[in-house]
Amino acid sequence: MLLIIGAGEIGREYAKTLRHLGIGDVDILSRRADPAEALRREFSFHQAFGGDFTRLPEIIDRYDGIIVAAPIDTLSRYLTTLAELTRAPVLVEKPAALTAAELAAHIDRHPHQNVMVALNRLFYPSVLRLRQSLSDDPVLSADFSFTEWLHRVDLTRYTSPVLARWGIANSIHVLSTVFDIIGHPATLHAEVSGLERVAWHPSGTVFAGSGHSEAGVLFSYASNWVSAGRWSAAFRTEKGSYHLEPFEGLSFCPKGRIDREEIEPVWNGELKCGFEGMVRRWLSGEKVDERFGLPQMLRHLTTAERIIYPDES
């Protein structure tokens, strides 16, 4: 029996994925009972509960696995609560915590908790295909952008702490994917401007920097949250350049040309991109790959803080 914590948009994506995989022994827990019951009915699951943290002690023993798809600013508290109540494996939404210090403290207190972080972009067909291509055409340099469309951010949907850490809450999708591919930074020079320009994200809006990874890959980035742009990444090799733009598709520009060839079409499936492979991996019962564990997520958060919040890191 599985438990999904969270009955919002992401909780529904997990419900849809589990049903697609033929799994129906699922309960739903949410802060309010009505959304949980609505999700339970939609997918014909077992039971729905309201009460979030307060309900866990009385129901937790019945579950063989827990998916935490709750609001971002509650993820860390759920991890702590679950660590104290159960040894069942946990799949937790990214970023798992809003600060590296918070996640580091949790790992120190609960070093053996069985947690996989839901880095679904690492399961994108485009990213898997890129990894395959780079296995015999190694990346030499990379450049990327984590430009955010601030005009599209629903300020009523997120709490002030989440908005103030938007680079952790959202841009981490780009950063964790890029540095999973090229390796974590060994050196990093980061510049930030546009402080106080956006009231809900006073730490800055324009970001640029460079460095080299532990694998020896040179990288650079430029992101402007108050101008045009999009999430994108380019990985340059002796044969040419591979492009995730958008991340759901992969194209290639051979050396000596300017046109790109489509290698992996942009994802257009019914399930959220990467979810099927990610959930299958978690359900397999295999030991959590270190790429998806909490210590690796801590490294991603530390890097993100150095890039987006250098005055705080």
TrEMBL record:
Pfam families: GFO_IDH_MocA (PF01408). Gene3D superfamilies: NAD(P)-binding Rossmann-like Domain. GO terms for molecular function: nucleotide binding. Transmembrane segments: none annotated. InterPro entries: Gfo/Idh/MocA-like_OxRdtase_N, NAD(P)-bd_dom_sf. Residues 3-119 form the Gfo/Idh/MocA-like oxidoreductase N-terminal domain. This is Putative Oxidoreductase domain protein. It comes from uncultured Alphaproteobacteria bacterium. The lineage of its organism: Bacteria, Pseudomonadati, Pseudomonadota, Alphaproteobacteria, environmental samples.
